UniProtKB/TrEMBL annotation:
Belongs to the metallo-dependent hydrolases superfamily. Phosphotriesterase family. The lineage of its organism: Bacteria, Bacillati, Actinomycetota, Actinomycetes, Micrococcales. Zn(2+) 2 binds at K144, H177, H206. It holds the Pfam family PTE. This is Phosphotriesterase-related protein. Coiled coil: none annotated. Keywords: Hydrolase, Metal-binding. Its cofactor is a divalent metal cation. Binds 2 divalent metal cations per subunit. Zn(2+) 1 binds at H22, H24, K144, D263. The keyword Zinc does not apply. InterPro entries: AryldialkylPase_Zn-BS, Metal_Hydrolase, Phosphotriesterase. SUPFAM superfamilies: Metallo-dependent hydrolases (SSF51556). It comes from the Bacteria.
């Protein structure tokens, strides 16, 4: 991309700076919120998000990629309000997040279905990338799909192929939520390649939950970037093992295939906030700047390698 759309305008790839490639601002169910979340205070939530993101920028991060798409509560007007006046770039995505089924809005329409029309998901994704999301004027810059423990269900495959088709037609890069313990990243690579996707433009998300260097290097050797992107979720894999895996990959010459992030958010309605804070006290935007980068340096990862991971790899993802 010559220019990358953000929540507040367009930037050149070189302006991304230090980038965390997988951070949500809000993850929630809007329908649930409207009907049941009686304690919701919009102004308070927006102000708190601005505070957290301002703090992240002060810690040396210039850009976050926000892969919040259909199924995760994407609401761009709220993101625009949060982003206004911030020095941090927020880059938005389009796509569909599902582990099993297609939403009912698409269940009966599509190729070979009751209403036999071209894939509507592909059309929506391309519109978000080329014209803008809803009537906000904000364009998506990348695509998102998911494949979890249930595997390549018919709904997951349909969403993934629609994402692949949109990428092949527009050149937009992709992030895939995967479960490394089922090696679903390899399945995603196969399906996306069948749709004509350039695998060097694909981040295999949540690869950092694995210590299996054989699996990780196989993904990287096929061209994709590794999303070592759940720092702070020590309940899924301890901090030391996440660090060990990155150090081992760097030592094997895979710096150009590594991206890092937290997969954190300013607000998420999946968990009770107090229980979340108790179970994962480091799962926040500060952890990489305050803990991960210093530890990687102590373990011998050079400034050059860190610049490759944080700056050059995200830039090449879009270029």
């Amino acid at each position: 991309m010559e220019y990358i759309p953000t929540a507040t305008g367009f930037i050149e790839p070189r302006e991304l700076g230090r980038t965390l490639v997988h951070e949500h601002v809000f993850v929630l169910g809007e329908e649930y919120r409207l009907n049941y979340q009686q304690d919701w205070d919009e102004e308070e939530k927006v102000a708190d998000a601005r505070r957290q993101l301002s703090e992240l920028h002060q810690l040396g991060i210039d850009t976050i990629l926000d892969p919040t798409v259909l199924g995760l509560g994407r609401y761009v007007p709220r993101i625009q309000r949060i982003a206004e006046g911030l020095d941090l770039n927020i880059v938005l995505a389009t796509g569909l997040y599902t582990y099993r089924d297609i939403p009912l809005q698409f269940h009966h329409q599509g190729p070979g279905l009751l209403f036999d029309v071209p894939e509507p998901l592909t059309e929506l994704f391309i519109r978000d990338l080329t014209e803008g999301i809803a009537d906000t004027g904000v364009r998506a810059a990348f695509l998102k799909c998911a494949i979890e423990e249930p595997g390549l269900t018919p709904g997951v495959e349909r969403a993934m192929r629609a994402v692949g088709q949109a990428s092949a037609q527009t050149g937009a890069p992709i992030t895939v939520h995967t479960n490394p313990h089922t090696e679903s990243g390899l399945v995603a690579q196969r399906v996306l390649a069948e749709e004509g996707v350039d695998l060097s433009k694909v981040i295999i998300g949540h690869s950092g939950d694995s210590t299996d260097l054989g699996y990780l290097t196989k993904l990287a050797d096929a061209g994709s970037l590794l999303g070592m992107d759940r720092f702070g979720l020590d309940v899924l894999l301890p901090f030391e093992q996440r660090i060990d895996t990155i150090v081992a990959l760097v030592e094997r010459g895979y710096s150009e295939k590594i991206t890092i992030s937290h997969d954190a958010s300013c607000f998420i309605d999946w968990f009770d906030p107090q229980a979340r804070a108790q179970a994962a006290p480091k799962w926040n935007y500060r952890h990489i700047s305050e803990d991960v980068i210093p530890t990687l340096k102590d373990r011998g990862v050079s400034e050059s390698d860190l610049n490759t991971i944080l700056v050059e790899n995200p830039r090449r993802y879009f270029e």
